[in-house]
User: What shape does this take?
Amino acid sequence: MEHRRAPCRRCRVSDGVLHEIDLARGALLLLVVLATLAFMWLVAPFAGAILWAVIAAVLFDPLNTRLFRAMPRRRNGAAAATLLIIIGMVVVPAMLLGAALLREATAFYGRARSGEIDVAGFFVSAQGHLPDWARNWLKDVGLGDMDGLQTKLGQGFADSFQSIAGQIVNIGQGAFGFFLALGVMLYLTFFLLRDGHALAAQIDRAIPLTLPQRVLLVAKFVSVIRATIKGSLIVAVLQGMIGGLVFWALGIPGALLWGVAMGVFSLFPAIGTGLVWVPVTLYLIATGAIWQAVALGLCGFFIISSIDNVVRPILVGRDARMPDYVVLIATLGGFELMGFNGFVIGPVIAALFMAVWEIFAEGPRRASAPAHRHASRRSVE
Assistant: This one.
């Protein structure tokens, strides 16, 4: 007759200790999650300021490193000098551009409302140059009444500009909030420049992954983020600036406004600046400004649109690029959910998504590679 051996007392004690350790880890993990969610809720009003502080720290970290090497043991001085350069090169020009854009948008709204800029008349004039079959098709779909169409278009543009004017008033009323967020952004940028590497090391140690996985995740993530920031934001600034200069040189009203619009649309792959300069070229043709239309069309096709193909590879270099369709969907989704900040947050989330899935897909292959080599070695022996 078989007698079952009773578990030893030491085994029961160690099982109880392991159970208590698991409970402690679970409680600690729950506490970490709750504290993190509470902190995120607390800083949510300044999410945009935090985002742009991180972006500024990442972009200007090489400059901050060089300054720190030039002034050893003065990390505060290097971070302060870098922050002053950021203010002089980015913040002040951006504020001046915003003020000028505000004036330009207000003036453009006034000209459109007074009829000096007749966008609705352009569509009516363009319809008059269409072939008979196209005009008949427009009549069939209810767009054949030119007078009614002009009235509807005029009312639509008036409503649109009225909405823009309302947004301008809201911006003016929210000036205190803007300067408060700007102060938080600059304050946080200083500390990220000074202590960013130590903070990144702490976050890296806290990620519950193996060392090779953490290295691969950080490498992929940073590579894609740098490619997105350098290849999108800087190219957008260049395209908007050159496009605005072309509009100004041709005497087209609202050159600054059109330049900013081209810079914004250039952030969307497969859409680009053509969404601005092509309709304006058609408008110039319809209004009889033929030489301006030809000049704008040539500059738009050979200069403005080619900036992306020439400058982006130079800026991105060896950094990994996401496919254009992923960038487009992520940018549109980010803009829809988070407004202007979504232009950056959308591609960042997409980069994290692709990096995590790449690590997950490579994990089984990396794990099976040593076993395969070991089996091959045994078969040879």
